[in-house]
Design a protein that fits this description.
304 residues, alpha+beta, 5 strands, 11% strand
């Protein structure tokens, strides 16, 4: 989820940056064309050949332009489209009544600024330069416009491609991560399954060891622990078997003599008493020997 959120944020920022860059390029182009037209209007057709009519200024300005694929112009005299470029254009400005009406309503003192308008061909950015010639009543308007629909379509296509690539990458990374995680966690799963099957009567089960990572080292450690537990339980069982067998014999001997003892015969009582004491001494020695054998398996039994 975090990776998806980062990808969405990165894609959104990329689209916003590209749209801002496209808008800046369009504004720079419009500003350059406005500056060129103003220079033409000031200098005229050459030294000593100033323009005498507003229509001549607009005609010269449009004829000298070589528009780009997404660029177009329009010349208006007294609010009416008069000079229209020839050739293929991204948008016919003269057929946009809202734009023509807005340009016609601009006053001579309105500053030249870049505006935005919606047309049938999409959104455009444009600027209007008001034209006046001394001694002439006409008011001209020189419109420079750039259609931004093509750049936005390219940006949106790039965004869609980025989204598809990002989605595919996330799916691939997720699949690879799932497989890798499964391989890494497999020893832990085997460890859990082995722990569930181990009981006090069967400690022989061991976990398969493969690889050289930390999980593999943990598996080896658990197997070594199971070896120690198995050995300890086996020693305990042997001790119990030996103790049960060795201690049962003197108890049986003493019990047998006591069952047939004639308490009225002092000599027999004395003999049985001596026998019982001998068997008790033997039992004590057996207990000491068994305890010594049990301690002998401890790692700290012998010290240099």
């Amino acid at each position: 989820a975090r990776t998806m959120a980062r990808a969405v944020r990165a894609g959104t920022v990329s689209v916003l940056v590209q749209r801002s860059a496209a808008t800046s390029r369009a504004d720079l182009t419009i500003a350059r064309d406005v500056a060129e037209f103003r220079s033409l209007a000031r200098t005229g057709n050459g030294p000593g050949r100033p323009f005498t009519t507003v229509s001549a200024v607009l005609q010269a300005g449009i004829q000298r332009q070589v528009p780009a694929e997404d660029e177009t112009y329009l010349g208006l005299v007294n609010g009416r489209p008069t000079w229209i470029p020839s050739g293929q254009r991204p948008v016919q400005l003269e057929d946009q009544p809202g734009l023509v009406r807005t340009v016609a309503q601009l006053g001579p003192a309105d500053p030249v600024q870049i505006r935005r308008a919606s047309t049938r061909a999409g959104e455009i950015r444009y600027a209007v330069v008001q034209v006046r010639v001394a001694g002439q009543p006409q008011v001209g308007s020189y419109v420079v416009a750039i259609a931004t629909a093509r750049d936005r379509a390219v940006i949106l296509a790039g965004a869609r491609q980025y989204a598809l690539v990002a989605l595919g990458s996330l799916v691939l990374v997720g699949l690879v991560g799932w497989l890798v995680a499964g391989q890494l966690l497999r020893p832990l799963r085997l460890l859990r399954e082995a722990a569930e099957r181990i009981s006090h009567t069967d400690l022989s089960l061991r976990i398969p060891v493969s690889g050289r990572d930390d999980v593999t080292e943990l598996t080896r450690t658990v197997n070594a622990m199971l070896d120690r537990l198995d050995s300890a339980f086996a020693a305990q069982q042997r001790f119990l078997d030996d103790a049960g067998h060795e201690l049962r014999t003197p108890v049986t001997v003493v019990r047998g003599h006591l069952e047939v003892l004639d308490v009225r015969d002092p000599q027999e009582v004395a003999e049985v008493r001596d026998l019982a004491l001998d068997e008790l001494d033997r039992t004590g020695r057996l207990i000491g020997d068994l305890t010594l054998l049990a301690k002998a398996r401890r790692p700290d039994f012998v010290r240099p």
